[in-house]
Amino acid sequence: MYFAALLARTEDGWEASDTELDDVETLSDLAELARESSPEDDTVLVLIEQEDAWFGVVRIDGEDDPRIYVSDAAAAARSSYGEILLTDELLGREPGDDDTDLDALDLDGTEEPDGDSDDDEDGTAADAVPHSPVGDSEILDDLGVSEKELKALDADDALGAIAEALGAAEVLETVR
């Protein structure tokens, strides 16, 4: 089960809105959705969680590039919403590294069975998406959540803990 919400900082405090991500296909789409929620170019946080598996925070400050933190990249990679956040840049790879080169495949029926490929032997396939946090772990430092605190959060209560530290727990609960 997924939950996604926008928290927009205004001069009156934080405003929360439930958000539907079905039409969001890219990080740019997500950033545009967030910017639309705050006409004053205030800070907007997109909070996404998959129950007990992973959580992500995307921070949009005006027209700046989005800043992203994902608690468990491998778990998020198995999710359509997580894939939006796991950009090549975030994972430290060149654009297109994860695409299979179809010209290099030997499709004459002599290919090795699953599990015996060269990628598995040298570890590149397994290492492509780590079972650890990725992104900007200092994303919420100036808002009261330190890097150490962010990394220590469990996926099952992370968004509540973040909202609590921001003073936005009540407004987040209204959209849950």
Structure description:
By secondary structure, the chain is α+β, with helices and mostly antiparallel strands. It contains 8 helices and 6 strands; from the N terminus they run E-E-H-E-E-E-H-H-H-H-E-H-H-H. It has helices at 27-36, 73-77, 80-85, 118-122, 124-127, 147-152, 158-166, 169-175; strands at residues 2-10, 13-18, 43-50, 54-61, 67-70, 134-135. The chain has a 6-stranded antiparallel sheet, with helices on both faces. A hairpin with a 5-residue loop joins strand 4 and strand 5. The longest helix is centred in the N-terminal third of the chain and has 10 residues, at 27-36. The radius of gyration is 18 Å and the shape is globular. Residues 99-107 and 113-126 have low confidence and may be disordered.
In a nutshell, what does this entry contain?
This protein has 176 residues and is of the alpha+beta class.
Question: Which features would summarize this protein structure in a list?
Answer:
176 residues, globular, 8 helices, 30% helix, 6-stranded antiparallel β-sheet, alpha+beta, 21% strand
Strand order of the largest sheet: 2-1-3-4-5-6
**Helix and strand pattern:** EEHEEEHHHHEHHH
Say what oligomer this is: single chain
Q: What percentage of the residues does DSSP assign to strands (E)?
A: 15-25%
Give the mean pLDDT.
Answer: 84
Number of helices: 8
Q: What is the CA-based Rg, rounded? A: 18 Å
Helix fraction? 25-40%
Distance separating the two termini? 12 Å
Low-confidence stretches: 99-107, 113-126
The main pleated sheet reads as: 6 strands, antiparallel
Structural class: alpha+beta
Shape: globular
| DSSP, total strands | 6
